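Students often ask why we bother encoding 3D structure as a string. The short answer is that it lets us treat folding as translation between two languages. Here is a chain of 67 residues written in the first language.
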Amino acid sequence: MTEPDRFKPCPICGKPADAKLTPFCSPRCADVDLNRWLVGVYAIPVEEDEDAGDAEAAAEQLRDRKA
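And here it is in the second language, the structure alphabet:
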């Protein structure tokens, strides 16, 4: 652990982090964070691939031709 990391507070409650549970201060805060990821409170933003949009448009055109 680097020196600045040692002084960062728990991201859930703001208390000093425990070295064994970094970046959290307690198992409870670690579990709260995990639950937030699991239920979708946190999400990693992704950029939609331009090719994916083109593929969807092409598939829609094929469906329209068959109809």
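Translate back mentally: The chain has three helices and no strands. Keep this in mind for the problem set.
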